[in-house]
Amino acid sequence: MAALITVLPGDGIGPEIITQALRVLAAAGQAAGQSFEVREALIGGAAMDATGDPFPADTRALCKEADAVLLGAVGGPRWSDPNAKVRPEQGLLDMRSAMQVYANLRPVKTHPALYAASPLKPERLEGVDILVVRELTGGVYFGEKSRDDNSARDLCTYTREEIERVVRMAGELARGRRGHVTSVDKANVMDTSRLWRSVTTDVYARDFSDLQLEHMLADAAMMHLLSRAAEFDVIVTENLFGDLLTDEASMLSGSLGMLPSASLNADRRGLFEPIHGSAPDIAGRGIANPCGTILSVAMLLRYSLGLEELAGRIEQAVFNAVAAGHHTGDIAEPGAASIGTVAMGDAVLAAFEALA
């Protein structure tokens, strides 16, 4: 039976990068004799324009039915009124909640071919291979909110169950890596972080004593991520801190355009997307980097469909293409020639075929 993949191109550069990712998915399926049923739906600003809802009922149904969801990006200046009651990004939050994807996985791995694209010195980039596990459906983003002319409130709330399930997933993933977990919090000032630290300590002492657990304050983690990134293995943290840490980590890889993500539920069904936004300033110009989306396809194959070998082949193809000098503008060296979105897709496909 064919795996059902719901595809949500979304806004801005979303449709452009999704097109290239689907080309790679089709080639991967053909190479491995795997069949995928792809169904497209609306989300974000595009959905608001068509239905008034950033996450319409039809899209919700397809996402809940699918084995995996592949997303481009949402949002843009057309829908950026801060006083609007409904914004495109609400569709993304609603989708995460509907799919119960509580663990966001963001790998950060450096490659010598991209060292020049990073503002950091090459010696800071050698050997970096990090997996950030971010709690995705709790914390301040989902807490009670209120606002008037003189004050505003965003409530940060976590339960023991929410913390335990995400730190447990981080531990399971660390067992397949180097066996070190860094739990990031602000236990010096926040009660939610004190609960986070206590629950994490209990879970690892009871069920993951084979792993090395380290606690680190969020501000220190921000510093060390740029000064000694190669020492990190798995980082697990709450929603807000994870959002900030992974955007900072993009400076290690050279560009947001190179970073994929997976958001998983308890059954490992997931939402897969590049971590960058809709980039409205370059939308329609054919210059967006599709690699983060293509690498998200690899994560989809690995985590939701269990196709590890195929996932690894796609990842190798992306980095082989980059190493061969195929660079979109965001990863090209200053003054060097760059290629567009379709040409980058062509290069990855060629590299994928060469690995057969």
Characterise this structure.
It is a single chain. This protein is α/β, with parallel strands linked by helices and 356 residues long. The protein has two domains: 1-102 and 260-356, Isopropylmalate Dehydrogenase; 119-253, Isopropylmalate Dehydrogenase (3-Layer(aba) Sandwich), CATH 3.40.718. 43% of the residues lie in helices and 18% in strands. The chain contains twelve helices and twelve strands. The protein has helices at 14-32, 44-51, 57-65, 88-99, 122-125, 160-174, 191-207, 218-227, 239-253, 291-303, 308-323, 341-354, and strands spanning 3-10, 36-40, 68-73, 103-109, 129-135, 145-147, 152-154, 180-185, 212-217, 234-237, 260-264, 270-274. Strands 2-1-3-12-11-4-5-10-8-9 form a ten-stranded mixed β-sheet, sandwiched between helices. α6 packs across α7. The longest helix has 19 residues, at 14-32. The model has no long low-confidence stretch (mean pLDDT 95).
Structural class: alpha/beta
Discrete helix count: 12
What is the CATH topology descriptor of the largest domain?
A: Isopropylmalate Dehydrogenase
Please identify which CATH superfamily of the largest domain we are dealing with.
Isopropylmalate Dehydrogenase
CATH hierarchy: architecture of the largest domain: 3-Layer(aba) Sandwich
The share of residues in extended strands comes to: 15-25%
Helix % is 40-55%
Separation, N- and C-terminal Cα atoms = 25 Å
Strand order of the largest sheet: 2-1-3-12-11-4-5-10-8-9
Number of strands: 12
Domain count, please report it.
Answer: 2
Shape: globular
Could you describe the largest sheet, including whether it forms a barrel?
10 strands, mixed
